[in-house]
Amino acid sequence: MYIVGLTGSIGMGKSETSKMFRRLGVPVFDADAAVHDLLKRGGRAVRRVEQAFPGVTKDGAVDRPALGARVFGKRQELRRLEGILHPMVGQAQRAFLADAQRRRLALVVLDIPLLFEGRGEDRCDATAVVSAPYFIQRQRVLARPNMTAEKFENIRRQQVPDTVKRQRADFLLATGLGRRHTLRHVAQLVSTVHGRTGHAWPPKGRPRRRSNSHPSRRPVHARNRIRH
Q: Are residues 12 and 45 located together in one domain of the fold?
């Protein structure tokens, strides 16, 4: 089973790109969706989040805007929240991979917003980064409800810069030229890795140090038609 880690900074189009993989029949683990499940009514994380941040739950679910207000711009509070959620998301991810292996799937995608920030690339056979020019990124994010320029810039500062992600990626998917353009290159990525043998799952011993110098992991850009 070959594992592609999909990531990208806020507003770069990762969610839409993730849908394209599904459209092509590739199973995707969505870390954001896993968090939503943990915080919804009856979710496994609701009680622990309420204990750590009293008053952020409503009708048995975490009030996400209220929680966001408690941790926004507060590094220590954010780390406390991550300490609750990340292990639970990791457990869900491992269950997804174990199920995929049992089903003998050839290719899966791990959609992880903070892939490089959390060294998630060690759990993947290759990484794909979605990217768009800054002005498009900013326009997309500021169009979201309750988003401000200050909040946007604060989020960007907490993420690995887009330029660094592009350098570290095995595949670069440009999302600034329209959905049809992106879909075409997602399909090319799927075709490129089809039939490759993965080595990231099941994990063996210490995390692997991945290197883009490996011949099968050279950075390949969408504008270069994802060719090796």
A: no
